[in-house]
Write a structure and sequence with these properties.
Strand content: 15-25%
Low-confidence stretches: none
Largest sheet: 5 strands, mixed
Structural class: alpha/beta
Helix content: 25-40%
Mean pLDDT: 92
Strand order of the largest sheet: 3-2-1-11-12
Number of strands: 12
């Protein structure tokens, strides 16, 4: 029997909401990433998440916003937009900011890009069928395949359009989900009310769990295997 767990979508600085989502269950938790940026308290969200991760209660998955912070703290040069700049300023102002940064780098370095949980695939961005065959986009895959899978997991699928700052999402990946499998993803706010469910022609499903926390929406989670949805905000 598949063990139960709670999957929590993009937190985006809503520390109090994350604390509620964690405190209201005894289940192990999977965090779909994007802990930081946009919301009121990115350092607080990191504190809450890191405490759960270090206690063995939670698993963090990789995500685009968290990945930028990680790369920056590791000495690389990601583009720093207004959201990340605000997060960095808040961390600098926090009395434990240096400690949070050290703990975050340690936790994120160990974070997988996706998890297979029973008949559910959990990730931040978008799915590819190869994810069912590989535990991680690492040793067993070629470099092009590793790049493709890690990019999809972080940034999802889209195409750039002239004059647009952000890619236009295509969601063609939803059609690649096999029958009887469900992908639970964050990253894209498809609904600010309840998570959007899409079913493809083969019977595979995608559940878009990000309902806009930190951007005027709610924080959502889903308890597996029953797929019971909970929200705050």
């Amino acid at each position: 029997m598949t063990p139960a767990c709670r999957v929590i979508a993009d937190v985006h600085g809503q520390a109090d909401w994350l604390a509620h989502a964690l405190d209201s269950t005894a289940l192990p938790v999977v965090l779909l990433g994007d802990l930081i940026d946009r919301g009121p308290d990115s350092p607080g969200a990191l504190r809450v998440a890191l405490a759960a991760i270090e206690a063995g209660r939670a698993t963090l998955l990789r995500s685009n916003h968290d990945d930028k912070l990680y790369r920056l703290l590791c000495g690389r040069q990601p583009q720093i937009g207004p959201d990340l700049a605000a997060t960095l300023e808040a961390l600098s102002a926090a009395p434990d900011g240096a400690d949070i940064k050290t703990r975050f780098v340690r936790a994120y370095a160990a974070a997988p890009y996706w998890l297979v949980h029973g008949r559910h695939i959990l990730l931040h961005g978008a799915f590819a069928p190869e994810m069912l065959e590989l535990a991680e986009p690492a040793e067993a895959a070629s470099k092009p395949l590793r790049s493709k899978l890690s990019y999809l997991a972080l940034y999802a699928e889209g195409r750039m359009v002239a004059g647009e700052a952000l890619p236009i999402r295509t969601y063609q990946w939803v059609e690649t989900i096999p029958a009887a499998w469900t992908v639970i993803a964050g990253h894209d706010v498809r609904s600010r009310e309840t998570p959007l469910v899409m079913t493809n022609r083969a019977g595979g499903r995608a559940i878009f769990l990000d309902t806009g926390a930190g951007a005027g929406g709610r924080l959502s989670w889903i308890d597996l295997p029953e797929e019971t949805v909970g929200q705050i905000g």
